[in-house]
């Protein structure tokens, strides 16, 4: 499918001069002339004190200590900050080039997802023999297409040594000299795409472990992909919905960019997202209530009656698309959870926990911090609880919130 949106073939040169303070408030504008910090319903006018405060914070480095900080020249008066410019300023040339290819891949996936022909593709989907995914998660052609789009973009970037995908049985070695490792769920929520429910791409980026370079390809590919979440250098997701949103973190803050269809650029609309310390929404499949352990049932009963630590009744919001439920939680607070051993540590739990923690929230399996868990298998599953710090602390104060059995339905 031909795309009208094309990636700019050349980027402005990187220089060391900072952006003048007087211009910064104008830089962080969305296509509509506003910038936001928590959600589309909480937009900040360009003249607001909060946005001026953010502008002053731009000089902070949000990358790992080894990254090269280099502000981007060429921003005209009133120009929005694009994704590639933002990454190039704070994370260095290698990540900037990698993200230029990732954003191109996300635009292609967004176009495929929005195509009038995708419903027929979904109905034809069958799981390949021996695939790592099965049952409800059996890959459909859209999953496969998204996977191939991402793999092709990573090959062209020459910046990724190995890609591990939820759709593949084993990691794919790409380039001996690539400095990064990428793990991904290429198209989360695709089984609901016939109903036009939002979908998303989830990814995490690690540094290649050079000390493993002497090992056979299959072994070093696997070990590089099994790094714990504390070693992430970047993570993100792309939400394909009424807007296409590219949300990223490099370890100091979580930031979201919205696709401006008039220019084909992702522009910064949600800088330094801060998830509220307490929300009023829980997101979980309530139909499984009677399968839950006693502790989780007690927590849900308590908060929805307004008898918890926060004296207001909680509401349930559940889309059954992880990226969509997570994005809403990031914007408005509360908790998104799946208490059974269902979500994958490498491809979903680690990247989303990294984003949530860098926005001031928490990620847990109900007992342990997600980022502290050492993966032992590429497709390892676990319970996942993500959300506002105070909500997470209250939830974890209950015993037995992990669902250990799955009666009546498959994992």
UniProtKB/TrEMBL annotation:
Is Membrane among this UniProt entry's keywords?
no
Q: Which reactions appear under catalytic activity for this entry?
A: beta-D-fructose 1,6-bisphosphate + H2O = beta-D-fructose 6-phosphate + phosphate
GO MF annotation terms? fructose 1,6-bisphosphate 1-phosphatase activity
SUPFAM superfamilies tied to this protein: Carbohydrate phosphatase
Q: Which GO terms describe its cellular component?
A: cytosol
Top-level lineage group? Eukaryota
Which InterPro entries does the entry link to? FBPase_C_dom (IPR044015), FBPase_class-1 (IPR000146), FBPase_N (IPR033391), FBPtase (IPR028343)
What keywords would UniProt list here? Carbohydrate metabolism, Hydrolase
Share an example GO biological-process annotation for this protein.
gluconeogenesis
Instruction: Show where the Fructose-1-6-bisphosphatase class 1 C-terminal domain sits.
Output: 275-398
- Keyword Ribonucleoprotein among UniProt keywords: no
Q: Where is the Fructose-1-6-bisphosphatase class I N-terminal domain?
A: 92-271
Its Enzyme Commission number?
Answer: 3.1.3.11
Tell me the Pfam families matching this sequence. FBPase, FBPase_C
UniProt similarity note: Belongs to the FBPase class 1 family.
Protein's recorded name: fructose-bisphosphatase
Organism name: Colocasia esculenta
The root-end lineage is:
Eukaryota, Viridiplantae, Streptophyta, Embryophyta, Tracheophyta
């Amino acid at each position: 499918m031909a795309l009208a949106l094309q990636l700019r073939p050349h980027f402005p040169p990187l220089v060391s001069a900072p952006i003048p303070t007087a211009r910064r408030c104008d830089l962080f504008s969305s296509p509509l002339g506003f910038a936001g910090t928590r959600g589309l319903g909480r937009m900040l006018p360009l003249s607001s004190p909060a946005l001026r405060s953010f502008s002053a914070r731009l000089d902070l480095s949000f990358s790992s200590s080894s990254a090269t900080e280099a502000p981007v020249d060429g921003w005209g008066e009133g120009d929005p900050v694009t994704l590639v410019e933002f990454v190039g300023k704070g994370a260095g040339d290698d990540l900037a080039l990698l993200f230029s290819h990732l954003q191109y891949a996300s635009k292609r996936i967004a176009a495929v997802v929005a195509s009038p022909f995708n419903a027929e593709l979904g109905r034809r989907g069958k799981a390949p023999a021996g695939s790592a995914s099965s049952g409800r998660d059996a890959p459909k052609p859209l999953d496969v297409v998204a996977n191939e789009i991402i793999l092709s973009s990573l090959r062209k970037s020459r910046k990724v040594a190995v890609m591990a995908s939820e759709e593949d049985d084993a990691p794919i070695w790409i380039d001996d000299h690539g400095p990064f490792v990428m793990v991904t769920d290429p198209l989360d929520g695709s089984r609901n795409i016939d109903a036009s429910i939002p979908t998303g791409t989830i990814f995490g980026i690690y540094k290649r472990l050079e000390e493993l370079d002497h090992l056979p390809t299959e072994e070093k590919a696997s070990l590089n992909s099994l790094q714990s979440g504390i070693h992430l250098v970047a993570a993100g997701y792309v939400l394909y919905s009424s807007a296409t949103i590219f949300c990223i973190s490099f370890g100091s803050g979580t930031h979201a960019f919205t696709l401006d269809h008039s220019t084909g650029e992702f522009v910064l609309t949600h800088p330094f997202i801060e998830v509220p310390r307490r929300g009023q929404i829980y997101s979980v499949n309530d139909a499984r209530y009677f399968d839950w352990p006693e502790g989780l049932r007690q927590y849900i009963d308590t908060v929805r009656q307004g008898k918890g630590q926060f004296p207001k009744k909680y509401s349930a919001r559940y889309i059954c698309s992880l990226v969509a439920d997570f994005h809403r939680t990031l914007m408005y607070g509360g908790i998104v959870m799946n208490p059974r051993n269902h979500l994958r540590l490498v491809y979903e739990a680690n990247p989303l926990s990294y984003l949530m923690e860098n926005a001031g929230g928490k990620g847990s399996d109900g007992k342990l911090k997600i980022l502290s868990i050492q993966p032992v298998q590429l497709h390892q599953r676990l319970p996942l609880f993500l959300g506002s710090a105070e909500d997470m602390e209250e939830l974890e104060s209950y015993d037995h919130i992990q669902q250990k059995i799955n009666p009546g339905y498959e994992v």
